[in-house]
Amino acid sequence: MMEFIRENRVVAAVLAVLRVYIGYAWLTAGIGKLTSGGFDAGGFIQGAIASAGGDHPAVQGWWAAFLEAVALPNAGLFSFLVMWGEVLVGAALILGIFTNFAALMGITMNFSFLFSGTVSTNAQMVLITVFLIVAGFNAGRYGLDRWVIPFVKEHTPIGKDKVKKEEVAVA
Predict the structure, then answer these.
(1) CA 15: distance to chain centroid?
(2) Residue ranges of domains in the chain
(3) Would you call 19 exposed, middle or buried from its count of C-beta atoms within 10 A (0-12, 13-18, 19+)?
(4) What is the Cβ-side half-sphere exposure of residue 153, based on CA atoms within 13 angstroms?
(5) CB-hemisphere CA count at 13 Å for 96?
């Protein structure tokens, strides 16, 4: 099954459609925040902290403690990271460049939103993104990764070290 999702070209085409769909969702969310005249995550963070109390809290205590101690005092930084993170993840997924890293950053944001008590489309996005991550290179096969990943492997010390290790293993 893993070979099927990681190597099949028909699956790669389906993954490209899913990748562009998720990328579009991220890109439009980020652009919406950038063009709204000033996105501030502070209110969202305060709402998540408030949701940690009561009989049936929507936010777990450990996450609320993180939000209160780290995110809220740095709300400006988190606002910047959310806006630009959404734009960059969306653009990378649409273009199919560094697809696995973009998907990993996207799923990290999705889980942050879920931990903060916001469901919306995040659960659906997590599910689709898991397939992109599991597929590895195949998720970006019909995108810029088709050319960028081989170039990076050929022209960086990390890629050359891997090739040398494979040559030593064969010898």
Answers:
(1) 15
(2) 2-145
(3) buried
(4) 11
(5) 23
Cβ-contact 106, 22 below 8 angstroms: yes
d(CA 20, CA 93): 6
Q: For residue range 131-170, what is the model confidence (pLDDT) as tens digits? A: 999 999 999 999 999 999 999 888 888 766 665 665 656 6
Q: Tell me the two tokens of residue 155.
A: 């022209």
Q: Which of 76, 69, 88 is nearest to 41 (CA)?
A: 76
Cβ contact 141:12 at 8 Å? yes
- Residue 84 token pair: 């630009």
SS (H, E, C) the chain: CHHHHHHCHHHHHHHHHHHHHHHHHHHHHHHHHHHCCCCCCHHHHHHHHHCCCCCCCCCCHHHHHHHHHHHHHHHHHHHHHHHHHHHHHHHHHHHCCCHHHHHHHHHHHHHHHHHCCCCCCHHHHHHHHHHHHHHHHHHHCCCCHHHHHHHHHHHCHHHHHHHHHHHHHHC
Number of residues assigned to the chain? 171
- pLDDT tens, 36-65? 887 899 999 999 999 998 889 999 999 999
